[in-house]
Amino acid sequence: MIAFPRTTVPVPEAVAALSARQLPDRVQAAVGQGAEAARLYAACRGGQYAEARQHLEARIRVANKVLAAHNPRLIIGWADLPNLPRS
């Protein structure tokens, strides 16, 4: 059997907005809070931001707990954090 590599398919904004409207309010809020925390986490670089990163990681964990209870594929992982060096 030959396994082909997975490729991501871009989702148009209108389709994403339509599917997001079907989510419960608490899940929509968790998606927004997790995305905001992930965006801010990527901006916190350097040693002076260690405490801020810990706070943002806690916010991401809280959002992921709600998202995983609804649908485990919605959680925010390291691959979703923009501009982070991968090690």
The count of β-strands is 0
What form results from the Cα inertia axes? globular
**Helical content band:** 55-70%
Number of discrete helical segments: 3
H/E element sequence: HHH
Structural classification: mainly alpha
Mean pLDDT score: 84
> Roughly what fraction of the amino acids lie in strands?
under 5%
Roughly how many Å apart are the termini? 31 Å
Major sheet attributes: none
Instruction: Give me the Rg, rounded.
Output: 15 Å
**Low-confidence segments:** none
Structure overview:
This protein is mostly helical. Helices cover 55% and strands 0% of the residues. The chain has helices spanning 13-20, 25-43, 50-70. It is globular.
Outline the fold blueprint.
Blueprint: H1 13-20, H2 25-43, H3 50-70
